[in-house]
From TrEMBL:
Keyword Nuclease: no
Keyword Repeat (UniProt): yes
Keyword terms: Repeat
Origin superkingdom: Bacteria
Record-annotated SLH domain positions: 5-68, 69-128, 129-189
Protein name: S-layer homology domain-containing protein
Amino acid sequence: MAAEAPYVSMTDIQGHWAAPAIQECVDMAIVRGNPDGTFRPNATISRAEFLALVVRAFDIPAGTEEVTFPDVKKGDWFLPELEAAQKAGIAGGYPDGTFRPTKGVSRAEMVAMVVRAARQDLSPLRAGSTFPDVPDGWMTEPVRQALQSGIVGGYADGRFYPDKQASRAEAAVVMLRALYAMQVPEKQPDDQQLTAQVIASEGAGIDEMNHQDYSMTKSLQYTIGQARAMTISQADDLAAYGASGARLNIVPQTQNAVVSQKRQRTAQVRYHFTYEITVTAPDLEKQNVVDGTLIYSLRIQGGEWKIYKIESVSSS
C-alpha cells in the first residue's frame, strides 16, 4: 500500500472560476503545475500538453506503434503519450502529415480528443445538438456529444468558438467533466471493490502506526490513511514522551464504508470510524476513543482503483 501523495496547492488559482476543477485535477495527478508553484490557468495549452492530460486522465496504456510524424522526434518529452494516444485512435495529424505538438490546441480539437478517449461511455445529461458556429465536418459529432453530456457549454452569445485556442483552465474543466460524465451503469465498479479498498487502506495505516517508534520525530509526519489523523490527535503526547520511546496503539471499534458516488473511472467512499487509541511510554498510559467521518476519493490509475485524496468531514 503506497503512502498517500502530498497535497499540492497551486499559488495562482485562488478566486479563478476554474479553481475547484484545477485543484481536483492536480490532486488526481492529471495536471501539473510549474516549478514555481503556479498553474497559469489563463495560458494556452499546446496539443502535446493536452494529449498528455488525456492519456493520464483516461489511463491509456502505453503504445508500441512507431510515431511517424515528421515534426516529432525521439527524445520528445510527449512521445510516450503520443504513441499511446495514436494506438488508441485518439490523436491524429493534419492533412500535411504533421502533428504540430507545440501549436495551441483548439477548443474543437480538445473536445474531439476527449470524446474519442471516452468512446461510447458518455451519458447524455441534456438535450442539444450543436452550436451555430460549428460547421459540418470532423468536429460536428464530438462537439454534439460533449454538449449533450455536459462536458462543454457555449459562451454568453451562444457560440462555441471551435477554433479558439483552449486555456489550461478550460482543459482541466473539460477533462474533469468528461470523467464525471462516464456513467454507464454496467461498466461501473462493484461497491464491495471500492469499500474493500478503503478498509484495506485504513488497515495498512493503522498497522504501520502501531509499529512505529515515536522516539523518532519523523514518525509524526507519517501520512497513510486515517493514521495521519490519529497521529495528529495524539501529537502532544507523542512529542512529550517521544524521547522515551512512546508507542501508539489503534484498535478499530467500528468501521463503516459506504460508496457515496461512483462512475466508471472515479468514485467516492464515505468512511465512518470509531477507534480506541492508547499512547504508552515509560510511566505513562493514556487512552481515549475518537470517531469521525472521512471522504475517500478514488480513480482508475495504472489499471487499478487507487486512492488519491482523503478529506475529513467536519462535525456539525
